Amino acid sequence: MFIRTVRAGTLRTIAIAFLCVLTISALFFLTPHFSGGDADAFAAQESREIRFDKIKTDADRVAFLKSFGYTVEEAPTECVEVTVPKDFDKVFAAYNELQKACGLDLGRYRGKTVTRYTYKVKDYPGYDGEVLANLLIYKNKVIGGDVCSADPAGFAKGLC
User: Same domain, yes or no, for 65 and 13?
Assistant: First the structure.
């Protein structure tokens, strides 16, 4: 068994200590801090998670759309039963890609009858025409949705 002892010089010890203090202080100053009201705002933002379930009433649906930043009329303009096709054609496959971008997937609901609620968006930014928000609900859970213009040559995008 061999034991080797190394004696660090005073200058080297001071340099290592200085680098340690510098690293710790850099971490301290570069890490975001929350104090007082900022901590409460951060906690509120973290706890404000968008829930896709327990959507039973018009008020629940309006609040759900508001959580994405959309202001809609209180009552839906349309409420219809639709069936998600078992085999997706090109159009429906493209629509499902919009849903997947928001973390939803209509593939699990093939052949199921769902309810589509359509709401008129009051103040969509950057567009002067009529804008509609659609929600697909299955057993009180949002399984899909979109925001689109009423103009056929307009736009369609996912909720998020």
Answer: no
Residues 79 and 154 in one domain: yes
Question: Which is nearest to 121 in space by CA: 80, 62, 79, 49?
Answer: 62
- Report if residue 84 sits inside a domain: yes
Here the tokens at position 125 are 């930014």
User: Are 72 and 135 part of one and the same domain?
Assistant: yes
pLDDT in tens, the chain (160 residues): 777 666 667 777 776 767 766 677 666 666 654 444 444 443 344 445 778 888 999 999 999 999 999 999 999 999 999 999 999 999 999 999 999 998 899 999 999 999 999 999 998 988 889 999 999 999 999 999 999 999 888 899 998 8
Structure token digits, residue 65: 């759309």
Same domain, 116 and 38: no
CA distance to 23, 61, 72, per residue, from 67 (Å): 41, 10, 11
pTM surpassing 0.70? Answer: no
